[in-house]
Structure formats: C-alpha cells, structure tokens
Design brief:
Length: about 220
C-alpha cells in the first residue's frame, strides 16, 4: 500500500503473511475506507489532513452470500405507540461486541399499524435504544437484537417513508438493491463499540399498535 506522488509510487506499507500466520490475514475486505491522523509527540501546533478522493475496485465484483436471519415484534404483542408523532423503536440490531469484523447487511424491512392511522417509518443509524434488553440472534450469529425498546435517543435517519393501515397498503418496505451496503451494520473502530440500526415508527394518532421486522444477511469468519 502506498501513494502516487508526482507520478512516482511511494511505498507506505507491505503485507508479509505467507507461512507466518495460521489464519486469514484480511477478514473483512468490504469495510469502507477511512483516514486518521494523530500526533506521536508533544507538538506546538496540531496536524492537518486533507483527503481528496479514493477508489476501491474489485475485478470479480461483489455478491454477498451469507446466512439469512430475521427478527420482529411478536404477533401476539404489538408495540404500543402511546403518543402521536413520537417515533418508537420496533427492532434494533447491532454487532456483537466480540464479532465486530462481521459483515451484516439488512435485506428486508416490514412495518404496519392495525388501526386507521397514517404512520411514518424510519431506519435510524447510531441511535441509542432506551429500555428493553439485547438478545443474541443465535450462537452462530454475529448479531444481537432488541425488540423491547421503549424509546430512542439521537442517531441519524438514513431512510424513511409513510404507510397506511388501509387494506390497499403494503407492509413491505423496499431497500434499493444497489444501495444496501450503505445500511451495513457499523462499529466505531476507535472504541470497539457497535453502532445500532433501528427500525422506528410513529403514528398520526395516539394509542396505535404497530408491528415490524428486520431481515439481514451476515458473513463472518
């Protein structure tokens, strides 16, 4: 790995793993690019880093082939939306703290309410789910989920839309096939903290009951 400066390749790092390690030296080749700068001593001024552009190419393309999983609200216990206009979490996902190198990509989303209300669904990245408890999706899974959350705090809305409880409405929410990688479960590599992905819903009238589910595909070592 290195830099092209003035038409000349400047080597920055070489990988030497042949006959030196027992496992795969690169376990998550699909993680995004990231830049970091830090001081190694006491300097009078802070350093700066200006990033212009980057490209990652794959000769063979990319097609995820992993284990399919799904979780949602129980059919006998919907989520109570006590207050109109307030978003409540239906399903929250995050990587297990000891599986932060896994690739987990949501593949399908479903939500609905059972009364005559218009509701707004949101996919929120980086929120904190309040209440409930986190449960492993299985011994062979890299994910844990929370379907008992009572509220959410913070985060960034990365997708949203509207649903109606009429019989002409559909509960299935389409995730663009060409953009599913932007929904990938993330983690803060500085603090080894997984980032939550939450399906939340708000109703236009109070005291609604809602249901929702999240499907995902996961690959790990």
């Amino acid at each position: 790995m290195g830099f092209n400066i003035g038409g000349e390749f400047v080597l920055a790092h070489s990988f030497h793993h042949a006959n030196q390690i027992e496992g795969t030296y690169l376990t998550t080749a699909s993680l995004p690019l990231r830049y970091e700068i830090f001081n190694v001593g006491n300097l009078s001024t802070s350093g700066t880093l200006k990033q212009i552009c980057s490209t990652v190419l794959s000769e063979g393309g990319y097609e995820l082939r992993g284990s399919q999983q799904s979780i949602g609200t129980p059919i006998t216990t919907g989520k109570s939306l006590a207050n109109a206009g307030t978003a409540y979490p239906l399903v929250s996902l995050k990587l297990k703290s000891n599986r932060l190198d896994a690739i987990v990509i949501p593949s399908a989303v479903s939500a609905l309410t059972i009364d005559t209300s218009i509701c707004e669904w949101k996919l929120i990245k980086g929120a904190t789910t309040l209440g409930g408890s986190w449960t492993s999706a299985g011994d062979d899974s890299y994910v844990e989920y929370n379907i008992g959350g009572t509220g959410i705090s913070g985060g960034t809305v990365i997708a949203k839309g509207f649903l109606s409880s009429s019989n002409q409405s559909t509960s299935q929410i389409n995730l663009p096939k060409g953009e599913v990688l932007r929904f990938q479960l993330e983690r803060n590599s500085f603090t080894s903290t997984p980032t939550e992905l939450t399906l939340a819903i708000a109703a236009s009238t109070p005291s609604e009951i809602a249901y929702g589910s999240l499907d995902w595909e996961e690959v790990g070592r």
